[in-house]
Amino acid sequence: MKNLNLIISILSLFIITSCFDNEEDILNPAAKKEGQIPTISNVNPGVFDSNDLQNTYVEFQVSVDDANAIEQAIVQVSYNEQFERVTFDTFNTFPATIRVTLADVAASLGLSLSEVQLGDLFTIEILTVSNGVTTRSSANVNASVVCAYNPTAVSGSYHSVSADWASEGDITITVDEDDPFIVYVSGLEEMEGLVEDQGPLKMVINPVDYSISVDRQVLASSLDPWGLSYTNLAYEGSGTLNTCTGTYEMLFEISVDQGSWGTNAFTFTPN
Fold first, then answer.
1. I want to staple 85 with a disulfide (CB 3.0 to 4.6 A). Which of 36, 76, 170, 182 is the partner?
2. Angle at 76 between CA 106 and CA 111, to 5 degrees
3. Is the peptide bond before 45 cis (omega within 30 degrees of 0)?
4. CA-wise closest residue to 62 among 143, 144, 139, 145
5. What global pTM score does this model have?
C-alpha cells in the first residue's frame, strides 16, 4: 500500500517546448528557416508479423511543407535500439508512401531472417536534405516483431504489480463484446481495499502497433477506507501490449479531485 501520508502535489506549471532533432538546426538559427522537417503519418501496419517473416511489412506516409525544396529524402534503419542508422532507401517525391519489408530491412542491417526473434525492434527514421541542411524527423516508426493479436490471449485472470504505486494483486481483464481491441480492467482498486464503484477501467488497443490509450476515468468515488477524505480516484495513461506473452506495460497518472500522485508504472501479466 502506498504511503497514505503522501502530500498530493497539484501541478500548475505547463511547459511548452519545441525543438529540431538535428545538431545543425540547433547550432545554426538560419538552418531552421531553410530545413524541411519531414512528418510521418498513416502508419499501417506498424508491426512485423512473426508468422510471415518473408512477406510482412510496415507502411507509412512521409510529408513535408515544401516538397520543391527537398533535394533528397533518406530512410534510415536501426536494430534493437543500437542506432546504427543504416541507409535503407532514398526518395524525392512527396507525399511519399513508404513500405519497409522485414526481409529487406534485415538484409540492409546484415541480418538473416533466421536471426530475427520475437520482440526484436526495428527503428525507421526519415531525413531530408534541403539547401544543404539535413533535418531528421522528430517522429519515427518503431516496428516490433510480434505475434498476431488474439483476444483470448490478452484477457482473463491477471496479476498486477506496481513498485511506483506500491501495490500488487490479482485483476481481471475482459474483452469488449463488440470491439476486440477494447478491454476492461477490473479489480485495480478492490485489491487495495477500495470500493470500485466506477470501474472497470477501459483500455483501447491500437490495432496498428498494439499501443494502448486510457482516457481519464474515475474508478473509486471515495478513499474513506484509506482514512482519506479525497474523492474520485481516477486513472489516465498509456502503454504497450506484448501480444506474444499477453503482458501489458502501463503508465498511469493517478489522481483525485484534490490533486495528483503523478505517473506510476504498472505491469499486468497473465496468471
1. 76
2. 15
3. yes
4. 139
5. 0.73
* 51-96 tens-digit pLDDT: 899 999 999 999 988 888 889 999 999 999 899 999 999 999 999 9
Angle (CA) 104-105-110 rounded to 5° is 95
pLDDT, tens digit (0-9, with 9 covering 90-100), for 202-237: 999 999 999 999 999 999 999 999 999 999 999 999
Cα separation, 45 vs 61, in Å, equals 12
Nearest Cα to Cα of residue 215 among 247, 237, 243, 192: 237
At a CB cut-off of 8 Å and minimum separation 6, what does 2 contact? 165, 166, 167, 261
Give 117-121's long-range contacts (Cβ < 8 A, gap of 24+): 117/145, 118/50, 118/145, 118/146, 118/147, 118/244, 119/144, 119/145, 119/146, 119/242, 119/244, 120/79, 120/80, 120/144, 120/145, 121/79, 121/80, 121/81, 121/145
Residue 141's nearest CA partner among 40, 246, 256 is 40
The string of DSSP letters for 188-247 reads TTGGGT---TT-PEEEEE-TTT-EEEEEEEEEEEE-GGGT---EEEEEEEEEEEETTTTE
3-class secondary-structure state, position 154:
helix
Residue 8 is given by DSSP the state P
